[in-house]
From TrEMBL:
Source species of the chain: Crocosphaera watsonii WH 0402
Domain of life (superkingdom): Bacteria
InterPro entries found in the cross-reference section: HTH_VMAP-M9, P-loop_NTPase
Residue intervals of the vWA-MoxR associated protein N-terminal HTH domain: 2-63
Protein name: vWA-MoxR associated protein N-terminal HTH domain-containing protein
Pfam family, one: AAA_35
């Protein structure tokens, strides 16, 4: 756990607000609310096997404690054999080399695509850290931080976007000084002007702007939000070819799906460099097993791959439990499809997606597959 994560965890355990927990420290509340907090709660969710937040993590730790029978004289929540820890990272050498080269180029745009929980956030965070070590600024804004009201109109969303960027860069006062409502022009012009004047000012180094969970844009009811925002990003990227100010902006978009319904001349999904994160191969799975100091036979690895393939999150989760010696591999496999299994939160998330109104046909197909005793051909 880093120093910042320790402050965040301790303060949250004590029920403090973000503002209160950063008093007397070098950190800003906006950092805890944004990039750090989002990644920390995701990592803790992975470690506990269920989705947690600042409000719900205590109960989740209690459930985890009951499952593993924790013992610790110092705290009530640290396991006897292994502390809750962040997932080990398995490198993607070719993709990382390409990304690191591109991110240093003026006006670059990268698209990181992968299925849910494939490591996009971690890949993006490492890329930003690399850029920062090279003298660039870097922030990662997750669309999951936007609330329902922020998605109610393009103007409100772009205010959320600019305020979030301003907070992460320590430009809150500049945003207040900008006076959004009094500024002339439509909302895209206002956002563009704010970036030109303050975010990309000539006195500042280039900025890596990571936009994580971009798919959230397409879940909102206001259709103008995704189209308006994404067309603005494309315009910024294209302007970098003729305007050095915009060359200071390097965009990194992390998403699950491709969106072919967007105007091809206004979409950022058909330009820039496309990097796709895939499941771990055998070599990467073996590498991760070594990181966890696990001595697994080939038969064990074959069982794991037959159950969950090479899914990064699920492989990490499996190895965490095996290394803690809480359960044997056979016990994990036996409980895998049940509410007692370590993959329960992952399964719940996918089931909730199936139950959405726009997925009813897919849900019915899924039910048919479960209920049939024979192979069944489904329409594509």
């Amino acid at each position: 756990m880093t120093d910042a994560e320790s402050v965040l965890f301790t303060g949250s355990w004590q029920g403090l607000t973000y503002d209160a927990m950063v008093e007397g420290t070098q950190y800003k509340a906006s950092y805890f609310k944004g990039d750090l907090g989002h990644k920390f709660w995701e990592d803790l969710s992975n470690a506990l096997g269920e989705k947690v937040s600042k409000r719900s993590f205590k109960e989740a730790i209690a459930r985890f404690q009951a499952t593993l029978k924790f013992e610790s004289p110092q705290t009530n929540f640290v396991p006897k054999k292994q502390e809750i820890r962040i997932n080990h990272y398995v490198e993607h050498p070719i993709l990382e080399k390409i990304a690191k080269q591109e991110i240093l180029k003026p006006g670059s745009l990268l698209r990181i695509k992968g299925s849910p929980k494939m490591g996009k956030t971690t890949f993006l965070s490492r890329l930003i850290n690399y850029g920062q070590n090279k003298g660039l600024r870097g922030i990662n804004l997750s669309m999951s931080l936007a609330e329902k009201d922020d998605f109610s109109s393009l103007d409100k969303f772009l205010q959320f976007f600019c305020i979030s960027v301003a907070q992460m860069l320590g430009l809150e006062e500049k945003f207040k000084e900008y006076k959004w409502k009094d500024h002339p022009g439509n909302s895209k012009l206002k956002a563009t002007s704010f970036f030109e004047k303050y975010v990309l000012s000539e006195n500042e180094p280039p900025l890596i702007l990571g936009l994580d969970e971009l798919d959230k844009l397409f879940e909102c009811e206001c259709a103008e939000v995704p189209g308006g925002f994404l067309s603005m990003l494309r315009s910024w990227h294209e302007t970098a070819n003729i305007n050095p100010t915009w060359g200071k902006l390097r965009l990194v978009l992390a998403h699950v799906w491709d969106y072919t319904d967007l105007d091809i001349n206004q979409s950022p999904f058909n330009i820039g460099i496309h990097l796709k994160l895939k499941e771990f191969n055998d070599s990467q799975i073996n590498e991760l097993a070594q990181e966890y100091k696990l001595k697994l036979e080939q038969d064990d690895l074959d069982k794991i791959k037959a159950l969950i393939g090479g899914h990064p999150k699920l492989i990490n989760l499996t190895f965490q439990h095996l290394s803690s010696q809480a359960e044997t591999l056979d016990e994990i496999i036996e409980k895998a499809p049940t509410e007692l299994g370590i993959y329960r939160e992952f399964l719940r998330q996918h089931f909730s997606i199936l139950r959405r109104d726009n997925n009813q046909e897919l849900y019915q197909y899924f039910q048919d597959i479960i209920n049939t005793q024979e192979s069944k051909k489904m329409a594509s």
